[in-house]
Amino acid sequence: MRRELTADMVDEVCPSGLSPFRVGDKWAGLVLKLLEDGPRRFGELRVPLHRVSLKVLTASLRALERDGLVSRTEHTGQGRRVEYDLTPLGRSLLGPLAVVCAWAEEHWEELLDARESYDRAAARGGEASTAATPAATAAASAPAASRVAASGASGA
Q: Where exactly does CATH 1.10.10.10 map onto the chain?
């Protein structure tokens, strides 16, 4: 039996609302993973995150720092140097993050297929929400699998 959804079901102070993985911050998990082996300078983080603008990466680091997951240390001396590192709280998130990454890797092709089906239906002007039927997903599986193999993507 389905439960009726009521206005007070989601408390504003629910811990899930404090999650560092905000809808608008798709880079938080990658930043945490990149800091797994120790402190990194901003420029070092930019190498694997070259697609991320300076503004967005800075905002992501600040949000992680605000949440207590990343520490920012400014070194003075010959030139200014700033390093970012995981806090103990941030390090405690690596295990759950690994589980989410493993799930995404396991379901990579299914996710690509669903997106492709949805996008194809939306492009035709159809109801995109009904596009991800089993038949549509099956029809899209070959192109997505080919695309993954051609790009060399591992799903992570």
A: 15-92
